[in-house]
Write a structure and sequence with these properties.
Pfam families: HipA_2. Helices cover about 25% and strands about 15% of the residues. It is α+β, with helices and mostly antiparallel strands and about 280 residues long. The strands form three sheets. A five-stranded mixed β-barrel has the order 1-2-3-5-4. Strands 6-7-8 form a three-stranded antiparallel beta sheet, with no helix packed on it. It starts with a strand and ends in a 28-residue tail after the last strand. The structure holds adenosine-5'-triphosphate (ATP) and magnesium ion. Magnesium ion binds next to loops.
């Protein structure tokens, strides 16, 4: 079971996130980033957050603690933004909470070095869950207390949006050329040797059991929660056996800082005798 807490105060929207996550306080005195069941991305993104987030934690990667955060929309009554109000009113009951990492910074490859070993583990894991949202444009990683933390696993397990196509998903290749850690020369061979044996049927059963039933009963869902959990676990088990040979990194996109504005660039020193 994930920890269950109740939201007591809606603090502010986090403007960076496409799904309009909010910062909330809860009755355990924790501060959480809250992701809403009523967001346009739908409940399946929360299913992906739990399965991928908890799986990556069990593979030794750093992910902030997750919780089920019960919401009474009245806790946000002081929030003036109508879009936020609509989101809160569309999301009563269990939502997703993630421990807020105060003072964390968005990952910047020019400011924080990741070893090939760590990069390999992250890329291998992202390939396993088919994460399509950890590119250099939107790294979805934070640096906190000098360490790398993974966030935002909503865009993983993409096959759940089209279960009839699932037959091909286990062997589907993963192109990591755009991955935020591609320039770190990820050591995929070592990562595969370490991580693939850890992805067992027992581990996956433990992870899929953490998803609340309420998120597995979307209106357009055609199967019951137990069947959906079993599908996720079976697919990840099959994919773990195949994915190591199906990852391409290619030529990493070079990381460049945007050129500084002209007024910031010091003029070149004039040589003696040069015309004014
Ligand atoms: N646990 C956390 N601690 C501190 N800041 C966080 C945390 N989770 C998210 N954030 C901040 O909020 C932003 C949005 O979060 P997140 O990426 O999870 O939302 P999203 O709506 O799924 O975003 P998108 O789909 O646009 O990438 C992050 O880029 C980060 O700046
Ligand atoms: Mg994000």
């Amino acid at each position: 079971m994930l920890t269950e807490v109740s939201a007591t105060r809606y603090i502010t929207p986090l403007r960076e996130g496409g799904s309009l996550p909010g910062l909330v306080e809860a009755d355990d005195l924790g501060t959480y980033v809250m992701k809403f069941t009523g967001a346009g991305q739908g409940r399946r993104t929360l299913v992906a957050e739990v399965i991928s987030g908890e799986l990556s934690r069990r593979l030794g990667l750093r992910v902030p603690r997750l919780a089920v955060l019960d919401l009474d929309p009245a806790v946000g009554r002081a929030e003036p933004d109508e879009e936020v109000q609509a989101l809160l009113h569309a999301s009563p009951g269990p939502n997703l909470g993630m421990d807020y990492l105060p003072g964390s910074l968005g990952f910047d490859p020019l400011a924080y070095a990741v070893t090939p070993e760590e990069a390999g583990r992250v890329v291998w894991f992202d390939a396993l869950v088919n994460n399509v949202d950890r590119s250099w444009r939107n790294p979805n990683m934070l640096v906190w207390h000098g360490e790398l933390w993974l966030i935002d696993h909503g865009a993983t397990l993409t096959w759940q949006h089209n279960w009839p196509s699932v037959a091909n998903a286990a062997g589907r290749p993963y192109d990591a050329s755009d991955h935020a850690l591609a320039p770190c020369r990820p050591d995929l061979r070592t990562a595969a040797g370490e991580l693939a044996p850890l992805v067992t049927a027992d581990l996956l059963a433990e992870v899929v059991a953490l998803v609340p039933d309420a998120w597995l009963t979307a209106d357009d869902e055609t199967a019951d929660p137990a069947t959906l959990r079993a599908r996720h676990a079976e697919l990840l088990l099959a994919r773990a056996a195949l994915v190591s040979g199906n990852i391409t990194v290619g030529e990493p996109t070079p990381v460049r800082r945007p050129a500084p504005p002209g007024w910031l660039v010091a003029p070149a020193p004039r040589r003696a005798g040069e015309d004014r």
